[in-house]
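Practice problem 4.
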C-alpha cells in the first residue's frame, strides 16, 4: 500500500506540489491548476489552496505573492455545522405533537 505524503504544517510549497503532479498529467488537456485564495465574506477568513476556478480579482497573500481571489459567502469557518452553532431540531416533540393532533396512539 502506498503511503500518502502530507505537506508540513509549516507552510505550503506550491513549487514542489505543482512540479510533482504536472509531470504526470498529459499536456494541453487539463485546466490551469494553480494556487488561489478563497475569502469568506461573512467572517473575514481566507485560505490558500489550489483550484482551476477563473477569477479576475487578485490579492497579496501573507507570503508576499499575489494570487487570484475568490470571494465566497460561507466556508467551514462560518458555517453553523462546523462552528458548533447549529440549531438542534426536536424531532421527538414534533412526532408526539403530530400523534396528538391526528389521534394516533
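Answer key:
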Amino acid at each position: 500500500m502506498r503511503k500518502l505524503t502530507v505537506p508540513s504544517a509549516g507552510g505550503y510549497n506550491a513549487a514542489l506540489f505543482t512540479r510533482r503532479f504536472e509531470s504526470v498529467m498529459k499536456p494541453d488537456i487539463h485546466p490551469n491548476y494553480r494556487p488561489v485564495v478563497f475569502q469568506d465574506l461573512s467572517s473575514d477568513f481566507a485560505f490558500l489552496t489550489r483550484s482551476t476556478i477563473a477569477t479576475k480579482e487578485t490579492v497579496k497573500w501573507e507570503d508576499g505573492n499575489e494570487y487570484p481571489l475568490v470571494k465566497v459567502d460561507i466556508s467551514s469557518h462560518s458555517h453553523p455545522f462546523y462552528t458548533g452553532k447549529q440549531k438542534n431540531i426536536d424531532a421527538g416533540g414534533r412526532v408526539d405533537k403530530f400523534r396528538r393532533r391526528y389521534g394516533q396512539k
